[in-house]
Every structure is written in C-alpha cells, then in structure tokens.
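User: Predict the complex with adenosine-5'-triphosphate.
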Amino acid sequence: MAVNSFREDEYMENTDKKKILSRLLSYLLDYKLAIAGVLVCMGITVGISLVNPLLIEEAIDHYIAQSDFKGLIALGIFALALNVLFIILVKVRMYSMSVISNKILLKIRQDLYEHIQTLSFSFFDSRPTGKILARIIGDVNSLKDVLTNMVTTLIPEFITVIGVVVIMMIKDWRLALASLSTIPIMIAGIFLVQKISHKRWQIYRKKSSNLNAYVHEDIAGMNVVQSFGAEDETKEIFENLTDEHRNAFVDAVIFADMFGPVIDFCWGIGAMMLYLVGIRFLGFEKVSVGLLVAFGSYINMFWNPIMNLSNFYNNLVTNLTAAERIFDILDTEPDITDAKDVEELPEVKGEVTFSHVGFTYDRGTPAETKVLEDVNFVVKPGETIALVGPTGAGKTTIVNLISRFYDIEQGKILIDGYDLTKVSMNSLRRQMGVMTQDNFIFHGTVKDNILYGKLDATNEEVIAAAKAVNAHDFIMKMEKGYDTELKEHGAGLSIGQRQLIAFARTMVSMPKILILDEATSSIDTHTEILVQRGIEALLAGRTSFVIAHRLSTIQNADRIFVIDKGGILEQGSPAELMEKKGAYYKLYMAQFAELG
Ligand SMILES: Nc1ncnc2c1ncn2[C@@H]1O[C@H](COP(=O)(O)OP(=O)(O)OP(=O)(O)O)[C@@H](O)[C@H]1O
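Assistant: Here is the predicted structure with adenosine-5'-triphosphate placed in the model:
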C-alpha cells in the first residue's frame, strides 16, 4: 500500500502561516503596476465612502437647518456624481483583480506541474494520483479568492478602518472611544475562533484529498470493480469517505461561521455605547444631531470593513491550508538530481557494470524493503540478458536502477565505465529505451504516440521505426493510418497493438540500452508472431535487459540471470543453465516444460 493511500491522511508539517502568506504575496508582486492601478481605484473609492457621511452631516446641520434647498440640491448632485464614479471604479477594480488573480493561479499551477515532473519515482510511489491531482486542481483553485481579496479587501478595508478611526477621534474622541470600546473583545474572540478553525480546515482538505484519491483509483480500476462485481464494496468505501469529508466540513464550518456573530456582538454593543455616551452622558448641548448621525454612519463604516476583514481572514484560514499543501509539493526536492559537476554521457557502446550494488526501498522508514545486496555483473555491448526469477525477487528493481530511477545505497553502476551519478540524467536517459508492461498510450494520434520516443523524428523515421517492429501494416489498416486518434490508455486497441506502438516509440529513439519488461498477457497467435518479431528487431544490435516471460526470448538471450534472494542466484547461457540443473532448470521445468 502506498504510504499515503486514500485510507490515510496526508502528513503535513506545521508551517509558519506568516511565511505562507508572504510567499503568496510575492506572486502578487509580479503585477506591481496593475495592482498599483487597482489600488488607485480603491483609494478613490475609499475616499468617496469616507466623504459620504460628512456630506450627510453637512446636509443636515447646514443646508436643512438653514432651509437652504438650492445648496442641498447642489450638494445632492455632487454626491450623486461622486457615487457614480464610485460604482465605475469598483467595477474596473473587480475586473482587473480577477485578471491578475487568474494569471497568478495559472503561474502557480504551471510551477507545480513543472516541479512535479522533476520529482523522482519515490515521490509517485508514495502518493496516489488523485491526491496529486487534488493539489494541482482543487487547492490551486481555492487560492483565487485569497489572492483577489488580499488586494481588494485587505488593503482598502484596512485603510478605511484607520481612516474612520482618525476621523472619529478628530471629531469627538469621547464618542470615538465609546463606539470602539468592544475592539478588545473582538480581537480575543477572533483569535480563538481562527486557532480552532485552521486545524479543522486542514483536516477537511486531507479528507477531500482522500476522497479524490479514491474516486480516481476507483474509476481507473472500474473494469476490475465491475468484473468482480465489487460495486457494493466500493460504494461502501465511497460512502465512508464522503461521510468523513462531510463531517470534516461541518466541523470546520461551524467554527468558521463564529466569526460573524463575534463581530455582530461587538458591533451592536459598540453602537449602544455610542448612543449611551452621546445622549445620556454628554447630552444634546455637547453633541449635535448631525454629529450623532455621522457617528452612526462611521460606526457602520468601521464595523462593516471589520466584518469584511474577518470574512477575508476566515477565507484565509480556510484556504491557507491549500497554499500550505501547494508549497509543500513545491518545496519537495527530487530525491535524484544531477550533482553540480556532472558531465554529459557521450554516445555509449552499451557496456553495463554493477559493482557491489546494494539497494533498499523506503530507506529509513518503517516500510523499508532491502531488495539487492552485493550484486555484481558486467554486460557487454550488444548482449541480451534475460532476467528471470520469482515474483518480488528484484528484476524490475535492477532495470530501474540502470535508468537511475532510484539511487543505490552501496556500490557503483557504470555504463561504458561512466559512473551513473557522475553523468547528467538527461544524457543517460536519452540513450536508454525503457518499455514497461503498461505500454502507456497517450491521447493523440498514432504518430504523436510514436514521437514521444524522439520528438523531432521525421515522418520517414516514424514509419521506418514502425516497419522495423512490424507495426506499420496494422497502423495502415486503421482509419487514418498514422493520423488515427488514439484514446487515453489506448482504449480501442488490442494489447498486442498497444505493444507494437510502444515498440515503434522505443525503436524511433534508437536507444543504446534497451530495457523491456515483457508483457505476460497472452495475445492471439498472429499478433504474437508480430510482437515476437518486433522484440527481435528491438533487441538487435543493442544491449538489452529483458524481464522475460516468453520462452522464445529466454532461449534467444545471450545470458540468463536468475534473480532471487537479493541478487543473481545463477547466470549463464540458456544451454549452460539447463545443463547445470540448478535454479533456472527448476524454474524452466516448473513453468515452461509443457510449453517447450
Ligand atoms: N516502489 C517500491 N517501493 C517499495 N517497495 C518496492 C517498490 N517496488 C518494489 N518493491 C519491493 O521490492 C521487491 C522487489 O520488487 P520488484 O518489482 O523488483 O520484483 P520483480 O522481481 O520485478 O517482481 P515481478 O516479477 O512480480 O514483477 C518486492 O518485495 C517489492 O515489494
């Protein structure tokens, strides 16, 4: 089971929220100019909203008190013009900000995707695909509001609050203090709520990730589920996961929604204090009606942005966990990287040497599995080696190490005398052709799929490769030949046809060293012959390691390595090993005797 399966919550380090926030802010800094424009719009709109109560005070205490209706109408027209400008600027600001935040999301998603491509096999071994998808799609999406609100809420509302406080203090400090007396209660309340809330949102995201992982796995394995009639079991697991997901959401949201009541409470008490102090303690002779009405507006103008800020904060607490999970991946270093002083591996002849190689999976974790111990061999250029042995013996591990998909623990692996760790991975892997049993077919044309082997191959090269592995004829029989669209995973192609396309893909790359994990599934006799010839064409003239299941491949190999008990139990030509009557002989008798 993968370390992080859908049954297990992902492990997350405790991270510094301020650091995450400033990292998010750094993405905004790439759009300084556009954000400056947004801020100018906001400065004007905040200014207009601050002036509005003063206009009301002026209208009541001056124009209405003195029955100056002309002046009142002029003031009204002025206020109307200001507020139309307000609406236009708000629209401009909202549009600009959504463009900026979308660009940032795109950048984060690209960074994430590019980074994931550099990560080593061990990263993918330990994470279900669904959980990786959850971060690239869901978590990135949930940052949209945070990014937008950081500029449109955080800054203007903060300025509004400060502006309101300053104006209130200037106008009447006693009323100001009375109105704002509940601030300490609000701060304490919000602190408490966010502390609990953050933890709960973290749990919610993990549950959401588990659900995603399960749905992805279930859909990918739907044929197995249906063919074994396991729909009820999978439905039950799905329901359990959705229950956990829902409960985690309810737990989190209950607390998140506490922000509003805390603010409402402080707002109400603050307003009560204003009128209590204004009317009861100071009296009408010290406080004019206009001033009291203006303060009534200011108190709303203070608490409204506080409410918005608290909503933003709530949104931040909710979604900061998404940012945490994104940065967690961006900060994951690939286990295998080029050392600083690597050189390019020149074109090799294909000699492969294992010298005292030892390897363990998941070293230093409870899942540690020692697979190879003191493995030694030298394979000459052009040799074909068949790897045989019981399941789980380490055959795939050996071939994965040749491509340096994992780093070894002890010993050295050399290609033409070059230590794998001393040459760039790109120059190494360019000269290797790796064919797994999956024969992964991408969505795209037949030609696109073959071109994965060599992106700049010409049409002639593609056709020559397909002809060499006996794939050309069947491709030409397809509706549009090489331009026929293939579905993801090669749905619509037979297993043998998928293999032939994968052979052509490998052939076009002209690898010096070929690694072939032969498919075990049986195919019809005609395709079997095509596949067999395809394999022969692939093997010709290059060093090859074949995890062999076909008797013919094993018989035609130059040497057979019998892998077991952490290393090579026996090796030699097929005839030598048969004569020796050792492990290979037993395997042969057990598995292939009746076929031979
Ligand atoms: N990614 C991995 N993480 C942890 N352990 C692994 C991993 N891959 C393989 N193993 C373990 O290493 C051992 C060797 O596995 P490997 O796939 O090399 O065997 P194999 O000989 O190729 O088997 P098969 O013939 O079944 O494909 C097994 O015990 C397996 O459980």
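Residues 18-330 form a domain with the ABC transporter transmembrane region fold fold (CATH 1.20.1560.10).
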